[in-house]
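Narrative progress, year one. The postdoctoral researcher (J.K.) led the effort to move from monomer predictions toward full complexes, under supervision of the PI. The following entry was the first complex the group processed end to end, covering 608 residues in total.
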Amino acid sequence: MSDALVWSILIPLLGAILTFWLNSRWVAAIGLAFSLATGSLALRVAYAIWRDGAVLHEIGGWGAPLGIDLYADGLSAFMLATNGLVGLLISAAAYLYFEPKEDGPRQGQERRAFWPLWLFLWGALNLAYVSSDAFNLYVAVELIGLAGVALIVVTGGRDGMVAAMRYLLAALLGSLGYLLGVAMLYGEFHTLDLRLMAELSAEAESSLVLWVALALISVGLMVKTALFPLHFWLPPAHSSAAAPVSAVLSALVVKATFYLLLRLWFGVFSDQMTVSFGQLFGVLATLAIIGGSVQAILQRRLKIMVAYSTVAHIGYLFLILPLTIPYRGNDTAAWNFDGFSGGMYHLLSHALAKSAMFLAAGIVILSMGNDRLRNLRGMAHQLPLTTFAFGLAGVSLMGLPPSGGFVAKWFMVNAAIESSQWWWVIVLLAGGLLTAVYVFLVLRYAFLPAHPPHFRAPPRRLEYVALTLAVLSLAIGFRAVEAFELLEAGTPFLTAPDGGDGS
Amino acid sequence: MPLTSEIVFALTAVIVFCLGLYGLIAYAHLVRKIMAINVMGSAVFLFFGAIARRNFEEGSDPVPQAMVITGIVVAVAATAFALTLARRLHAETGQTQLPEEQSRR
């Protein structure tokens, strides 16, 4: 079973190399085949972990501290499964979106560049979720950044190039901050293995070096996760790329560094997780939710609006911190699990809903020529399926029942009330209202009667993919038990020495 | 704390890192920004060197050195990519700066 962890990294990388070298018209088909293999393998690994518990693989049989360990627990499996599910559907969408048409050489160039880079990115994401080595994670994070930037460059045109340059500089700065923090951690603990580090830090006394490392790693990864006020690079980067790329970046890429932050915060730095640290990130999250939503409302183009919505919803993820760190008393042993699971469930439902929204925006551009809001008149009549998909995804983002977003918000509100932090309840509800404003702004234009002048029917199957993603973001509101069980099957808090079975 | 050579190296690394960060923020030209990132990277590698020396009484710890080698490979790849992107940006738009920093040098 533990070999599957290795294959979940090797298969997409192999696919990336093959699709890069094979300069043929079969590139898209081969890419899709490898995506299918990668996605289904990730889902299988997640299922096995849900059934049997965490998996440990010692690469080359060396084992930590000398070798590099791959370790997947419930949290890793949750991220792998999110990636697998959303990645499969986005791959299908990309296959249809970059379909060879009469569009000429540019379309062909995009198609040839997309598949190797996307598989490369997927492999790096999987590596980030299963690696247990701090330096190995640096390499994964850097690969994710480079592949993401390259995807924007090849599909985004001139605006995309400027946005990609800004993104690249921010990403390199972020990963260097992380790397310097890792160097300090190595100096402190003499190991790079996250699980060993967590054990050692539980015994060690809190020192200045640990706080400096915490600050460097937190700020570095916050830049890459685009937490307000370090989100400056995100909206132009995510909105200028082609729709499937935007979906990948918004739904999956920003979450990888967030996952890494969770691992380090609750594993290695669990002693530093004080109430004031949690409240600080709660304030940043609030600023992200309010600021991102207001910016989204002010936009006049669909894609950049959806991108600003991502800034706001990254804020929800960071509410995990104040909700999980117990507010009353200072007993760090009693983490509030509701807040954590709710936040992670928000991650899943946002990944599904946001990729549906970006695909819907891409369909609008394909069929109507541009995405200015006032040009959306007649959309509901001409593109009923796409409008429906956008609306359903909006319901999930708002957190209305029955949807994945509702379950997530319900658990987060519960956690806030249990720990008597009523102010986060206001933030959660206000965020939902603001989301409703920009979703209805789009729907209002969409339902105005008009005949778009240059309407071209989009591929019908592409509309179905967007609709599937939107329906899934709603459907996960009906059954959340398995996902929550998975999150409990080894969380960052339970980094016990006997966590792995050493198979 | 005695001022051993490792501490001097580590402090130098921190100062160089801050200089690089200053360069990244203060200069608008993209090539300068990319160079500033490289300066920051070198600082991190120097810090790893100091750590390697500190962990061992005699000789030095090979693990940070292995990380530096891998780190240099990653930095070279990232720099090559960034320079290519900057060149293409210049070819397409005629600019060597990001639009929001147009008024600065």
